[in-house]
Amino acid sequence: MNPPLRTGELAERAGVNIQTLRYYERRGLLAEPDRSLGGHRLYPADTVAVLHVIKAAQRLGFTLDEVAELLDAGRRHPTPDLRDRAIAKIAEVDAKIADLMAIRNTLTEVVDARCDSLTNCTCEDCPLPFLTIGGPPA
């Protein structure tokens, strides 16, 4: 069995900072560690793997609340919940991509039209719907 890790050792091995460890502990993502006689936190060595899982899930778009739920469900019993949540996350990502593409397309139209002002654009056929922001009411 691997010896327990102190806070700094764990943070370094997992590639996170100490404040992140304490935050995850407060949120219940990490179990409260044992303490040394001197009061130092002593984490099991497998906590490095747990932190890597948390970070990987975040990179996939899961919130910390969602990660906590998935970890909790997985600790109690194996669950197909991850698949269902991944399907839902894909739908969220697809919606965000669609929104970003709409934004990109509008910005491209702004550039192509040579818009010069957000509030008083002088270009012809300005793609922005709010040419007279702050101007007198029509």
Question: If you had to describe this structure to a student in words, what would you say it looks like?
Answer:
The structure is a single chain. By secondary structure, the chain is mostly helical. It has helices at residues 7-14, 18-27, 47-59, 64-76, 81-113, and strands at 5-6, 34-35, 41-43. The protein has a 3-stranded antiparallel sheet with strand order 1-3-2. The protein is elongated.
In short:
This protein has 138 residues and is mainly alpha-helical.
How do the helices and strands line up, and which of them pair or pack?
Blueprint lengths: L4 E2 H8 L3 H10 L6 E2 L5 E3 L3 H13 L4 H13 L4 H33 L25
Antiparallel strand pairs: 1-3, 2-3
Helix pairs in contact: 1-3
Q: Which key terms come to mind for this protein?
A:
138 residues; 3 strands; mainly alpha; elongated; 3-stranded antiparallel β-sheet
Could you estimate the helical fraction of the residues in percent? 55-70%
Order of SSEs: EHHEEHHH
Count the helices. How many? 5
What does the main sheet amount to?
Answer: 3 strands, antiparallel
Mean pLDDT reading: 86
Model regions low in confidence, pLDDT < 50 over at least 5 residues: 131-135
Cα shape: elongated
